[in-house]
Amino acid sequence: MFTLAIVGRPNVGKSTLFNRLVGKRLALVDDQPGVTRDLREGTARLGDLRFEVIDTAGLEDATDDSLPGRMRRLTERAIAVADASLFLVDARTGLTPTDREVADLLRRSGHPVLLAANKSEGQAAEAGFLEAYELGLGEPLALSAEHGEGMAELAAVLRPLIDAHVDEEADAGVGVIEGEEDLEDWRPTAKRPLQVAVVGRPNAGKSTLINRIIGEDRLLTGPEAGITRDSIALGFDWDGVPMRLFDTAGMRKKAKVQEKLEKLSVSDGLRAVKFAEVVVVLLDAAIPFESQDLRIADLAAREGRAVVVAVNKWDLEENRQEKLAELKEAFERLLPQLRGAPLVTVSARTGRGLDRLHAAILKSHEVWNRRVPTARLNQWLEAMVGAHPPPAPQGRRIKLRYITQAKTRPPGFVVMCSHPDAVPDAYRRYLINGLRLDFDMPGTPIRLHLRGQS
Ligand code: GDP
Ligand code: GDP
């Protein structure tokens, strides 16, 4: 779906606008502070338009960086993850030097930008509104996020961008896949690179791995326009597959204090997870499956990403057979939610195993994108129910009527049934495991919703 990032200085009204667009339907809510709340992302409704919106305010971290530095990073992130940005300035306070810097960065990036002067209700805003023309980003929209003014105008400028995006997705075969044959053709394109994040504890070998992957013999297509050295997304081509790699601690200057580094790398990892399609959880073979590893792997699963577990520093292992058996056992026991996800052993130092990692990333991505035709799903459901009918709690017969795949990335299914609340968890798991096995969807989170018919 088309993704719009809202960028701008603190207090210009980003969150207010986000809330207005998304309402209460927040995609990411988590009561664990600092875990997933740091990025707000949701589905916006504006008239008949639907799109994803990201509030970059949530991306700010409490580092002691200067405001311009922070703004630059947030803006770069927006450029990397969104299809377009909505740059908000405050019509009441007028432009600041930081506004001008952000505008420069956006202009140079070539990324589609819409400019809006917020807080435009009333006369106090006129001067600031006119000033916004100075940014060289075209005609500003006059908005009032708080009062809901200018929303029709915003929709009018967004519509062509969203329409163009829909055409592009259709060209790439995204979201309109029907037959099995089409699935075979689904491949990342230069326009739509496969988005990968490498996450893991400090010293797991993330930077070594990334350097190895994008080493001399590979074609570097990044850093992307407007993205500077401590950059956040890197486009490159890995054996013929366009990819985009998201920021992890390994790609930036390391903090001096180890403790700080640890914190940084965890929250960076969390963010990278949100932006990625495939998350590579990198473990150190000597100390695999530590709590930090488990946490991030679990987060990736909960966020619905395709996960590949890579065990690094395999060159140091002596009893490989034995160690592999141990790893598999630990994987199944500690991360049951990732059942079927590929586990590959690699050595970032020597480069061994990288071909397997490449294959695992592609395969996971393909599965994550898979769409099963409705007719096959319903034959399958009939067989599943025939083999093992749902129970009849308190004599209420549960009828599963119909199944359809409502979404991909990750696969999500809806079953229409009577008494959805009465379906036991065990039965739901039976269906999910069946889908996974029968349609060969290992290692991807599968969502299953039971819906009643009214
Ligand atoms: P953020 O830091 O950019 O996310 O800004 P917020 O959304 O938190 O808004 C900062 C302040 O500006 C809050 O007090 C809002 O109530 C106020 N605000 C937001 N939009 C408008 C608006 O359209 N008009 C006016 N007058 N105030 C607004
Ligand atoms: P990061 O903190 O996850 O980015 O980890 P680094 O890439 O900085 O690696 C941490 C340490 O592990 C460095 O000393 C690397 O040289 C070492 N290292 C990384 N990958 C391997 C590997 O495959 N084998 C061995 N033996 N050492 C590795």
UniProtKB/TrEMBL annotation:
Q: What keywords does the record list, in alphabetical order?
A: GTP-binding, Nucleotide-binding, Repeat, Ribosome biogenesis
The protein in question is named GTPase Der
State the function annotated in the UniProt record: GTPase that plays an essential role in the late steps of ribosome biogenesis.
Binding-site residues for GTP 1, renumbered to this chain: 8-15, 55-59, 118-121
Q: Which GO terms describe its molecular function?
A: GTP binding
Organism encoding this protein: Jannaschia aquimarina
Tagged with keyword Repeat: yes
Family the UniProt entry places it in: Belongs to the TRAFAC class TrmE-Era-EngA-EngB-Septin-like GTPase superfamily. EngA (Der) GTPase family.
Note the subunit structure. Associates with the 50S ribosomal subunit.
What lineage, starting at the top, does this entry show? Bacteria, Pseudomonadati, Pseudomonadota, Alphaproteobacteria, Rhodobacterales
- Could you tell me which residue ranges the EngA-type G domain spans? 2-166, 194-369
Q: Which residues bind GTP 2?
A: 200-207, 247-251, 312-315
Query: Biological process GO annotation list?
Result: ribosome biogenesis
